[in-house]
Amino acid sequence: MPTISMFYGIIIYLYFFDDERHKTPHIHARYQGADASFSMIDGSLLAGEIHPGKAKLVQAWIEIHRDALLADWELAINGEKPYPIEPLR
Predict the structure, then answer these.
(1) Cα 49 to the chain's mean position, in Å?
(2) What are the C-alpha distances in Å from 48 to residues 14, 45, 89?
(3) CA-CA distance, 80 to 60, in Å (whole number)?
């Protein structure tokens, strides 16, 4: 479960070989013990819960870094280590 970014107390990570459950490219976000999965395609919440304000930050970050996220997704589902992605500033 590599961490690919951290910003405003949010940890963003990918699981290796994680293409079965949601059937779409997605990231996992953790904030103060809450966990949520977000689509890389449109930023929609797929599962879990996270503070609404933090969810909006994650969705904005996905919008900015979609191409890099999709490249990291391909690495992760093939068991390769994804690259870090710039945090939201």
Answers:
(1) 14
(2) 15, 8, 25
(3) 26
The residue whose two tokens read 């969705």 is 59
Cα–Cα distance between 82 and 77 in angstroms, integer? 10
For the stretch 39-89, pLDDT in tens is 999 999 999 999 999 999 999 999 999 999 999 999 998 989 999 999 998
3 and 83 in contact (C-beta within 8 Å)? Answer: no
Q: Indicate whether this model's pTM tops 0.90.
A: yes
Asked if pLDDT for residue 21 goes beyond 70, the answer is no
Q: Please give the DSSP secondary-structure letter assigned to residue 62.
A: H
Distances (CA, A) of 53 to 22, 32, 56, 60, 64: 23, 13, 5, 11, 17
